[in-house]
Each structure stands twice: as structure tokens, then as C-alpha cells.
Amino acid sequence: MLLEREPELTVVRKAVLEVESGEGALLLIGGQPGTGTTALLRELMTTGEAAGARVLRCAGAQSERSFPLGVVRQLVLPLLASREELIPAASRAMLAPVSGEAGLDPAQDIGIDMLVSVLHGLHTALAELAATRTVLLVVDDLHWVDEASLRALAFLAARLDGMRLLIGVVLQDGRGTRDPMIREIACAATRSLHVRVLSAEATATLVTARFGATCAPEFVTACHELTGGRPKELRVLLDRALAQRLRGRAAEVPGLRALGGTFRRERLLFLLRRDPAADAFAKAVVVLADQATEELVARLSGLGRDERAAARTVLRQAGLLSGTGRPEVREPEMARAVVESLSAEESSRLYRAAAVLLEECGAAPEAIAAQLLHVDILRDCWEIDQLRAAAVAARRRGAWGPAVRYLRRALQDLPAEGRERADVLVELAAVELVTVPDSAVRHLTQAARLMPDHRSRAEVLSWIPLQMTGGDQLAGLVHDVSDRFGELAAPDGYDRDMALRLEARSRFARLEDPDALTSALARLAELGGDAAPVGWEGCAERELRVVLLQSAALTGRIGSAEVVRIARKLLDHEPTNTERISAPLQMLPWILLAADAGDAVSSWLDAALTHIRRQGKPELTALVEAQRSVILLGRGDVAKARECALLGFTLAERERPETKRMAAVALGTVALELQDLSLLNRVLEAVGPSTDLVTFMLRRNLRGDLAAARGDLPAALAQFLDCGRLLDRAGWCHPATARWQVSAALLLHRLGRTGEATELSDEYHRRALTWGAPTMLGRALRVRGMVTDGPRGVESLRQSVEVLRDVDSRLELSRTLIVLGKRVQEEAPVEGDRLLARGRRLARQLRTSVPGEWAGGLVRAVTPASAAVARSALTRAEATVAELAARGRSNQEIAGELDITRRAVEKHLTGCYRKLDVDGRASLAEALGVHQRGE
């Protein structure tokens, strides 16, 4: 069924009728591939046969272009083999080279004399046939006809006058237009027609004929879009759709488009197999990609101007190339199909050649490297150097991913040993520190082992981030190189800075080594406690001092006052516009928090956060927010601390493991202090098992508190004691790390093991005294008071209140007040109620649940003071006024109801507030256990 072909069919009929009248003609049929040119040629044959013409058919083939007179043979051999003796003897003799009767190889070249003989023989033979009957000679795919046959056809086209001979040829758009023989034949055409693509309406007719009238309009539209209205492609697409059991529904359009994409790729690959020029052009364009220009494509493909023009037209029709001036691939899927068609050897050859061409044209290093990424083996130093140069260019523009790819590709073909491999490993690690720091550390370690001397090894290892120097093998390597290089390093300058950075990493890696911790204090004194490094030049020394300060603090042998003095000096010279996780940022907030000097680092963190937000670095933002949370917790700003810790934890979830660990430690610390069970569980799920001692300590405390919350006191105690054993073995004796002692002492007391509880509380108290920070000392006194019965316990609690009264440690003070209030209630009810009221009021100010007695690491809520005890502290008149005020009466209403003056009401209420230590009517109602109106 030929749709929308009425004009073309009219031209065909007229051409046949004209030839019947004795006028020879040549009909040229043009059009895009797949538009139905061959179908129209068949219609020409049918029309000719119906008119009584003798039809001779032949077709060009790309695989046979090298066979001289191959198409002429297709025409002549059937005539020579016919029993009717259609060809005269003279013509038969001239056609002997074609028939093979002359004993010639059909594939060999023929001379000019032989060709002239064949041309005249063909002409005379056709003239003899046309003398008695119209002859229709049809040629499909004229652009694939061999050159000798083209000469024969051109010879015939110039001698049609007086012959009843109609030559019909099909020439696809853009094919052979540069070939002089094809142009000569086309110019000889007496009639021509151009086959158009089908309209959307014709496509709908064909689709409906196959799928029925219920076919969805969306399905029809997709068919037209995928085939462009080319009937041949539409037929294939519909056949495949039916084979896939599609039924023309709108929901099946995605599946139809997938089929269409597959078919288009297959058609393109078939075209490339048949057309070497198009194949070479397509591969050159795809390989060069964004760098493709006319000149580069010409040089890479090796095609002449005419061949390129023809190939471009063909590939544009096939949907590979866009219609723009520069060679450009239209769809990535089509480009991938071309790339996948390349063999491994051809791919490497083309991409390597493209890299060389781009380098000769002065292209950027990254453009050259993009080609070398596809080469199977890098053969020389030039290719390695190009990849390294491209990585440098990528780093400058912040493209870390491409930089990593270039350097990893360079490593693949470098020898396993040698300085060049070590240098490339260092360059790769420098990029990976931003993206995949674990890989960076591994590559730096490999590079250090390949370096030829201790100085080179020291330089490489000093690149490793401080917080990532853990691991036994790496720690041992860092320690060994640090010791060896320290003996060789110059007393000042770059070598000294490198030695200090390496020592900092060596000591950080040995934070769990008691001997290394013990020597830290002496090393800190050796550096000179009053000589604070200034500016960025002193970064290495400040880093080492921070590590030494933390090491010394962990031993518990240095007082908080000395630590604060040193930390302030270091912080004063540490820039806030940090671009990395520096040692001060990582450690100093925790050190100063433990020393009750959080305010010293608070403003520094705020300034650093402002700068980091301006840079847009989520990893550093997460870390600073986490550090701010523990400082806010130390101040007693509980709600804000929880908010910052959660923000830091959320931001760190997508960052590298070390940042996630530090944010989890901060959130875990807040959760433990607030006894927030939901947060405790969340942090425990996020922090997996680790050999890192800080993570181990956090997990043990979390699991212990959760076990205590479930009422499983023995399991909770086991967690805390296990934590303590490992910390003591590592030499971590600081009270800030000894939370396990607090929890274990209270659990032992609840389990009736008073002696063990007292021993642990006394040990914690000794550590807190050595440290000297009021918060730690106050906590130690509170725990000692809780596990000690009688007046001695009460005295310890009173001492805790006195110690905490003058420091900004409101959370710890509120706990102590409540515990002390409960202890003295029986003997001194008024004082006990007053202390309880103070503790509860302070807790409300902190905007948290009322903290109370620590029991196995879990804070129990404290019940309100009884109304009877509260009223016993008031006179009868005060109690009456307080009762009415607590129930919501105004001062005027109370005065009217009791028949007293308003001033008397105010006086009684003032006495009530003072005696019960409350600050308003809401607190008064809570103390008396009554409900206000409306509740």
C-alpha cells in the first residue's frame, strides 16, 4: 500500500507512456533512505510490465564496487542465457568479456579497448531489443554501482534518442553527488521525482491498519516521531512492536520508544558497515567529541573533501549528526552505539591518534587526556605527562573527579616500583584528600614506601591529615620515619616544619600508648610554653602543641589552669578562616570545655562558622556545629546545644567517615548529658564498631545507659567497667573520659555494693582534684555524696553546690540541688523544699526535663515536693492567699474574697515566693500541687 504517492505514480506512468511512443527516457528517483524509493522502483517495473515492456533489473552493492562491470553483468547474463537468442551474434561477441567467454577473471581490471567493446555491445544489444519491444532498465542504489558500469549507464543515457528504452535509477539524497559519472547520469534525466516522507496522517493510517482503530493517539505520534515518516522504518518498528505484544496503548509509549531507539542504532551500524566513508567520518566525530572540527575530523578520518561531504549528509539523515556547521553528534545514545562498534585495537588507535592531533593543534591538557583515558596501554612518558598536566588543570577549576580519573589512569601502566610512580601517587592523594580521604591515605602510604630517602618519605607522610593517622601499619611507618627524619632535619625552616608535622602525626597515632602520653608533658615544656607560634607560618608547631596538650591532659597529670593558659595562646594565633579540619578545630573545644573555659573558644568558633558558611563547605560546617554544641552544653544552653549537635550530625551524614565520627561523638555527648533515649539510640545506630578508642568509649557509655534505662543493671555495669579497663590500659585518666566511673559508682550503689561504689567515687574525686576544673570537681563531690550515707554524704553534696555556685555549669548545679534537696527533706523539710525548688527552677530555665538523681547513667525524674510539706513552711494567712493565687485568682479578687487590702495580698505573696524559692504564680501552683483555672 503506497500512501501519499499519487504525484510520483503519475510521473512513473507518463514516463512509461512516453517511451511507448518511441522516445527514450531516463527517470531519476531520489529521496532519503527508507522513504520508499525501492518500492517506487518496483511500481515502475509493475507499470512497465503491464504495458508490455521487457524489464531488466540490476542494483549496486557496496561490497561489489571493486568488481568491474558487475552491474552490467546483472543486465547481460540473463539475456545471454536466454533460449530466445535475444542478443545478436555481433553484440554477443562484443560482450564476451562480460559473459566470461573470453576466459577473463571478472574481478580483474579491464583495459580501455575492452571497455569500449562492452559499451558498444551493450548499446547494440539493447537497441536490438527495443526495436521490437519497449525495454525498461531499472537500477537500484546507483551510488553503489561500480565505476565501469557507471560509464556504461552514462553511455546509454547519452544515446536514448530513437530507442524505446526507459532507464529508471534510484539515487539516495546526498549520495554520489561528487562522482562525475553519477552527475552525468543525473543530468541526463528527462524526468525526476523526489520521494517524500509520510505525513502524520499517513503514518496514523498505517499504524491503525496494524493495531486497529482503538490505537491511542500518543502511540501513533510516537511512531511518527521515531521513524520520521519513513515507511520502511515504520514497517520494521510496527513489526517489532507486534512481536513484543504491544497493543497500541498510551501506557506502552515508553516501551515503543525503547524499541525505536534500538532499531535506529541497528540501522546506523548497518549503514556504517556498508559505507566505509561514513564509517570513518562517524568514528572520527565520536572519538573527537567536543573537540571535533572540520580539520581534525579530516585528519583523523583520512577522507577527502567530497567523501566527507557525502558522509556528513548520510550521517545526518541517519540521525547521528546534527544540522549545525560543526560536526556534532545529535544524541548520546547514537554516539555510544558507534563507540561500542569499535574493536579494542581500533579504539586505542583512534583515541591515541586523536590525542596526538589535539596536542599538535595546541589543545588544553584535559582535552588530550580525555582521549588517552580510552587507550588500552600508555606507551610512553608523553602520555603519562599529559594525564598529569590534565589533573593539575582539573584541580585548578575544582573538578576533583576528573583529576582523580586522569591520575588513576596514569598509574595503571606505570611500573610497580620507582620514583615516578611515587610522585603520581602523591599527586593522586592530594586530590583524593578532598573526595576520598581513605584512598588518599592508602596512596600516600604506598608513595612513602617507594621514596628513596627519609626526607622524601617524611614529606609525603606529612600530607596525611592528622585525624587519619590511625592504623597499626601506618602509625608504625609514621613513627619510624619521624624518628629517623627528626635526627636529620635542620633546626629551622621547611625541614623543621616538616619534622614537627610528622611528629604531630606520630604522637596523634599513639594517643592510646601510655608511654607516648607520659612523655607529652616534657616535650611540651621543651618547646617552650610561652612561645606561641604566630600566623600560618607556625601552623606545624601549633598542630604539634595541640596534640601534646591533649596527650598531657589525657594522662590527668596536668591542671586545668595550665591547660587553659596554653590553649588560649594557641587559639589566639590560629586563623579562623580555616579551609581544613585543623588540630585546634578538632581538639581545643573539647579541652577547653573540660576546663570550664568554653567561652575562650566560643567566639573563635562563631567566626570560623561565618567564614565556612561563606565558603559553602558542609563538612567543615558540620564539624564546627558539632563543636559548638558541646560548648553550649557546658554553658547549660541545653536546647541550643541539642539543635547544633543534630545539625552537625545531619550535615555530616554525607561526608567522610572521620567527620561523621566527630559529629556523632558530639551528638552522643549531648544525648548522654540530657539522657535523651531517642538520641542515644540514634547515635548508637550510626556509630558502628571501631578500633578507635573514642568511638569505643562512646559506644560503651551509650549501651550502658540504654541497658540501665531498661532496668538491666548488671548489663549496664558490665559495659561501664569494660570501658574503664580499656581506658586505664591506654593511660586515659582524665575525668572527662572517666564518665564510666560516675555511672559505675552509682550502679554499684544501687546494687548494694557500697564499698566498690565508694572506691570508684573516691578515685574519680582524686582525678577531678588534680584537674581542678569546678564542673568536674562538683560532679565528683555529687557522686561521692550520692554513694555515701549519712552526714558525710550530705556534706559532699553541700560542697558540690558551693563549688558549682560560681561557675557557669547550671546543668550540673541543678542536678546537685535536687539530689541535696531530697537528702535533707526528712530532717529539714523547709530547706529541702527550698533546694528542690531552686533545682527545678534552674532546670526550667535550661528548657529541659527536670534532671535528677543519676542512677546507672540514667537520670530519673524527681517527683514534686508534697503540698503538705510546702504549706507547712507558710503561715495560715500566707497559705490561704497562696492557695487562691495558685488557683488563678487576681490580687483584687483575693482581697475582696478575704476582706483584706490589696497591699496585704501582695505582702503575703512576697513571703510565699521567698519561703518556697519560686519566682511566679505558675511555680507557686506547682509547688503547692494545685491546678490553675482552665487546666
Total beta strand runs:
7
**What is the number of helices?**
47
End-to-end distance, in Å?
Answer: 87 Å
Taking Cα atoms only, what radius of gyration do you get, to the nearest Å? Answer: 46 Å
Provide a compact summary of the structure.
The chain has 935 residues and is mostly helical.
Give the helices and strands, then pairings.
Blueprint: H1 6-20, E1 25-31, H2 37-50, E2 54-59, H3 70-81, H4 89-94, H5 96-99, H6 112-132, E3 135-140, H7 147-157, E4 165-172, H8 180-187, E5 191-195, H9 200-211, H10 217-227, H11 231-243, H12 253-274, H13 276-288, H14 294-301, H15 305-317, H16 332-340, H17 344-360, H18 365-372, H19 381-396, H20 400-412, H21 419-435, H22 437-450, H23 454-461, H24 472-488, H25 494-509, H26 514-527, H27 539-555, H28 560-572, H29 583-594, H30 599-615, H31 618-635, H32 638-652, H33 657-674, H34 677-686, H35 693-710, H36 713-730, H37 739-750, H38 754-771, H39 774-787, H40 790-805, H41 810-824, H42 829-845, E6 854-855, E7 858-859, H43 867-872, H44 876-886, H45 891-898, H46 902-916, H47 921-928
Parallel strand pairs: 1-4, 1-5, 2-3, 3-4
Antiparallel strand pairs: 6-7
Helix pairs in contact: 1-2, 6-7, 7-8, 9-10, 9-11, 10-11, 10-12, 11-12, 12-13, 12-16, 13-14, 13-15, 13-16, 17-18, 18-19, 19-20, 20-21, 21-22, 22-23, 23-24, 23-25, 24-25, 25-27, 26-27, 27-28, 27-29, 28-29, 29-30, 29-31, 30-31, 31-32, 31-33, 32-33, 33-34, 33-35, 34-35, 35-36, 36-37, 37-38, 37-39, ...
